[in-house]
Amino acid sequence: MRFFKFLFKCLIIFNLFSCSLENKNIMKYPKTNKQNVIDIYHGKEINDPYRWLEDDYSEDTKSWVAKQNKYTDEYLNRIPFKNKIEKKLMSNWNYPTESMPIIKNEVEYYYANNGLQNQAILYKRNKKQKIGTVLIDPNKLSVDGNKALGGVYFSNDNNYLGYSLNISGSDWQELKIMKLEDGSLITDKIEWVKFSGMEWFKDGFFYKKYPETTEGKKLTEINKNSKIFYHKLKTSQKEDIEVKTLFDSENISPWLSISEDEELMFLYGSKGTYGNSLYFKKASLDKSKWFPLVKDFKSEISLVRKIKNSLYVISDRNNPFNQLIKISIDNSEESDWEIIVDGSSEEVLKEIQITGDKIFAHFYKDVYSLWKVFNLNGEYLYKIDAPELGIINGFNGDLSHNKTYYTFNNLITPSTIYEYDITSNTSKIYRESKSSFNTENYVMRQEFYKSKDGTLIPMFICHKKGLHMDGKRPTLLYGYGGFNISIEPYFNKSNSILYDNNGVYVIANIRGGGEYGEKWHKSGILEKKQNVFDDFIYAAKYLINRNITSPNFLGIQGQSNGGLLIGAVINQSPDLFKVAFPEVGVMDMLRYEKFTIGYAWSVEYGSIEDKDSFENIIKYSPLHNIDSTVTYPSMLIYTADHDDRVVPAHSFKYAAKVQSLENNKNPSLIRVGMNNGHGFGKPTIKIIKEHAEKWAYLFYEMGLKY
């Protein structure tokens, strides 16, 4: 008997020893060299030992990326249920989807995907057709599905279709033109385009172009000094005419739009991600006089539609909750503007569509959609009846249309398209979702919690009906908190993996976003950025205090500015979270202005050139606040080799530093997507594989099975 007890103890000791060895092997990351690079910011020395990783074209960086991806593959392939999750996700995705139609000359244009196609296909369909004919199939343009359709732009006479192509997820675009009559392409090729549409005028169009650069700097070089050009059809891009604007600073980004009747042109200028000026004049290529609507950059203003002699614009200039304003072309002084529709703190005006002879106004009421209809004089008529609480988008169309379309969905309801009769204010289902997801099995609710300073913050909570909350529910908390971007409760095909594993999905609508207008945005930027992190941390505490989850079962996720959020909160409260997914994040806040369009974010974060801004930023920059004495959550860091919005160096340097922590017992992995960008245009198969990795990692690190 004693022998068996002794043997049993030996087995336990052996297993523990084996586990510790395995753990030690897991933590043997690929080596990352350090260099002695010192920068001085306002008299303070900052070491940047991984600066060499900013050169993503160097052989050393490419080798580092390959080794990191291999290491991540080896770790994730140990998870026995990863493939099972991927198969389930393939099933979740495998049903046909279709977009709302765009109606031009009584012809419908729409996107559709059979479910597992890498990219959606653009179709056209006339009244006699049940099934449309293919107009543009981006899946045939590349082997791996890495070419995606960006915007589509119909000429005002509907003879031509301009469209943009994005390659490997980069923000760089190629513009192409098709004859709608027969679907043939004309040979014009427009390159070095970024953040641009196509504004048709006479026998050509306007677009925005950046200076050309070398291939090795294309994905990292600062994007300044953009200019507007006019391209005449069937000519070379070298012959394009530069449009002289009112702006002489390389930091001011211009954009030009044309009214549908081609009578007026509008010139926008912006210094960053918030605030713009707006001018107008008679549409021509001549150097005629511009008339100002707004000269400064202190507010947002944009044209909705020109109707006869009036301009309808939406702006937060005199109301942080937005207004629809009617401006006479002949008397455009701000003192003579007429307010047509007003937003409020209870109902934030987010969007305006003018279709048929009606104004469709999209409000947020605690983040849910509320659509109201007005006549062109701003008199309230009625509201659109929503199927239930959720998000409604649509109501696009021309002034002559008597019907339009909208979509409805929420976190537990797949998207359905409705046809709306403008004359009778009635709706009918146009395309019902073919998803097998059964809404009746799940619950979505909105709750409000107090942040550190007492501000009430909304959150959405979703899970299976009847789920017992015992503090051990695997939970994923998502946040963003910036750039006036609202995180809406959209349906996500991936989330059923969590729901069906007795988990909980949560969105925290933290400050910095646009959920409650510009005040909500401004309370989470610049010197108030800490509010964003506090809001998210207190969301986690709320979930724990409500016994929904606990630190051992709480995962967090954020992308881009949300990646910065995740990096900041795990520095400040690492003990609250078990798993963290900082994705395509702004992690090196001292150098974000050095790459591509980063300088435009200084209106959100502040510029490092300013001492006060530096003193604020250095307090929360994820890379510069990593603590070698604490245990961090298990991390799976995501970035992509063609991300030229938030360059991958942010995540490279961040991963290198957290991997260097000797006391951190939890894994810190990095996945670098190849031929991927910031998120747009990613092929379906890659989306599924990434989601499978995340869910598998979440459950595995929590000690759960799927």
Keywords:
706 residues; alpha+beta; 39 strands
Q: Give the helix level as a range of percent.
A: 10-25%
Major sheet attributes? 8 strands, mixed
User: Tally of extended strands?
Assistant: 39
**Strand neighbour order, sheet with most strands:** 32-33-35-34-36-37-38-39
Structural class by SSE content: alpha+beta
Q: Unreliable segments (pLDDT under 50, ≥5 consecutive)?
A: 1-25
Morphology: globular
Note the gap between the termini.
39 Å
Q: DSSP strand (E) fraction?
A: 25-35%
Oligomer: single chain
**Using only CA atoms, what is the Rg?**
26 Å
Mean pLDDT: 95
Number of helices: 11
Topology:
Blueprint: H1 2-26, E1 38-41, E2 44-47, H2 59-76, H3 82-93, E3 97-98, E4 102-104, E5 107-113, E6 121-125, E7 133-136, E8 147-154, E9 160-167, E10 172-179, E11 190-194, E12 199-201, E13 204-209, E14 227-232, E15 241-243, E16 253-258, E17 264-270, E18 276-282, E19 291-294, E20 301-307, E21 310-315, E22 323-328, E23 338-342, E24 348-355, E25 358-365, E26 368-374, E27 380-383, E28 391-394, E29 403-410, E30 413-421, E31 426-431, E32 442-450, E33 456-464, E34 475-478, H4 496-499, E35 504-508, H5 518-522, H6 530-545, E36 554-559, H7 561-572, E37 579-583, H8 602-605, H9 611-617, E38 634-640, H10 649-659, E39 668-673, H11 684-701
Parallel strand pairs: 34-35, 34-36, 36-37, 37-38, 38-39
Antiparallel strand pairs: 1-2, 3-5, 4-5, 5-6, 6-7, 8-9, 9-10, 10-11, 12-13, 13-14, 14-15, 16-17, 17-18, 18-19, 20-21, 21-22, 22-23, 24-25, 25-26, 26-27, 28-29, 29-30, 30-31, 32-33, 33-35
